[in-house]
Design brief:
- The two termini are 15 Å apart.
- The relative contact order is 0.12.
- A two-stranded antiparallel ribbon has the order 1-2.
- By secondary structure, the protein is mostly helical.
- The chain has one domain.
- The radius of gyration is 17 Å and the shape is globular.
- Helices cover 59% and strands 7% of the residues.
Length: 146
């Protein structure tokens, strides 16, 4: 029974988030009159800029600063946008990395997902816990279906 109450709380949270997001999106759309593709780019750019500011334009792995430098870095999704599209614009699902650390570091999520997860747990605890809680709730809701 406890699982059902947690599932109900989860869906209530999702509904509230969707309602809040719908209000924010409608407000933004009134000020943004271009096509849907441009609007998605606008949302992505807004997400990217928020992550850059939060991480102070600094690679979170090697700590190289890219403040004022337009090349050599990127904001990456921690949980892939292909598999977790609902987190595509969630700031806690983003991390500022230099190209080298993103693709080639020993703890790169592309080379060793387990090592990257461990690094995230130790170095970005708030983001790690947010994403783990999200995955845990998602897993429970899926397991309730079967």
């Amino acid at each position: 029974m406890e699982g059902k109450s947690e599932l109900k709380k989860f869906w209530i949270q999702v509904k509230k988030l969707k309602q809040r997001n719908k209000k924010e999106i409608k407000k933004e759309q009134k000020n943004f009159t271009r096509d849907k593709k441009s609007y998605k780019k606008y949302l992505y750019d807004k997400w990217r800029n928020s992550v850059e500011i939060r991480d102070n334009y600094t690679c979170q792995i090697c700590k190289t600063s890219y403040l004022g430098i337009k090349k050599g870095h990127q904001v990456s999704h921690i949980l892939s946008k292909e598999n977790y599209s609902q987190l595509m614009y969630e700031i806690n699902n983003g991390i500022f990395l230099c190209f080298s650390c993103h693709k080639n570091a020993k703890i790169s999520s592309h080379l060793d997902g387990f090592a990257f997860s461990y690094w995230l747990m130790k170095n970005k605890e708030e983001q790690y816990n947010y994403l783990i809680d999200y995955l845990d709730i998602l897993n429970k809701s899926v397991s309730q279906l079967f």
